[in-house]
From TrEMBL:
Stretches assigned to the Gcp-like domain: 27-315
Record's keyword terms, sorted: Acyltransferase, Cytoplasm, Iron, Metal-binding, Transferase, tRNA processing
GO molecular function annotation: iron ion binding; tRNA N(6)-L-threonylcarbamoyladenine synthase activity
Record organism: Gelidibacter salicanalis
Catalytic activity: L-threonylcarbamoyladenylate + adenosine(37) in tRNA = N(6)-L-threonylcarbamoyladenosine(37) in tRNA + AMP + H(+)
GO cellular component, one term: cytoplasm
Protein's recorded name: tRNA N6-adenosine threonylcarbamoyltransferase
Cofactor note: Binds 1 Fe(2+) ion per subunit.
Amino acid sequence: MPTQNIYILAIESSCDDTAASVMLNGKILSNVVAGQSIHEAYGGVVPELASRAHQQNIVPVVDQALSRANVDKSQLSAIAFTRGPGLMGSLLVGTSFAKSLAYGLHIPLIDVNHMQAHILAHFIDEEGFEKPPFPFLAMTISGGHTQIVQVNSYFDMDVIGETIDDAVGEAFDKSGKILGLGYPAGPEIDRRAKLGNPKAFKFTKPRVDGLNFSFSGLKTAILYFIQKEVKANPNFIEERLNDICASIQYTIIGILIDKLKLATKQTGITHIAIGGGVSANTGIREALKNGEAKFGWTTYVPKFEFTTDNAAMIAIVGYLKYLEGDFAAQNVMASSRLKI
């Protein structure tokens, strides 16, 4: 524990959520997220609309984060922000704001990798949540990313498996779109899956060597299956929606668990942490817990509010970098394809 109080203001703007958080010595004092409902009409995030909404939201969101934390900007030790990966326009809004604020307050600026932040969210001091020991395997699953990462220390990470096409969150959302569900469809599929039979319909799992993933073929298979069944029975979706959702979710979870089993076998590491928006899925959480009994895993799931895009996860990375004196220069640039 540091001898002085370290206050980190963190800003996250990688996609369509504008978020700000204030952290004191590893503990979250506030975590504010403003979503953008405007994208629902389009069935996905529209980058230009997202960046405009960030411009409208960022000042009130930061102001609210400071207010809820009861912290004045003069108390801040540093400003942390998401440098990438993400939508370039969205990233530029957060990056520009963070740089300007840090410059105006004469305090350090800290750039954060969004994917590292999903993993390091596990190290936020939160009562009732255990932190994974090094080394551990992290599975980051979201609308834009699907990765298995070997985490050797806070900033020593190796991506050992990733999707070669679509992310798992996209597979959920596109499947939902085929079924006529709203955007994002993942939470609705999860809800309906609990009411259906997961083995009602069988979908073939894509065959991908090693620890990489593929979800493109599965989406196509689901589309053709639905088209065929609806042709035979126009009411098929309506009559069997819960079973369809349960079967889709069962297949996707099976793909993820199969790769985790292979990763633990190859690395010998049995501590597994998940992060990213799709880790909020109750079926995935249940499958991980079952893995503890079946395969001898020890699993770590962060607090729900730290799974989807949020600034608390940016704050913990900012705090850890602050302790190491790892600061960014004012000419740091946003990077839409930033790698771990």
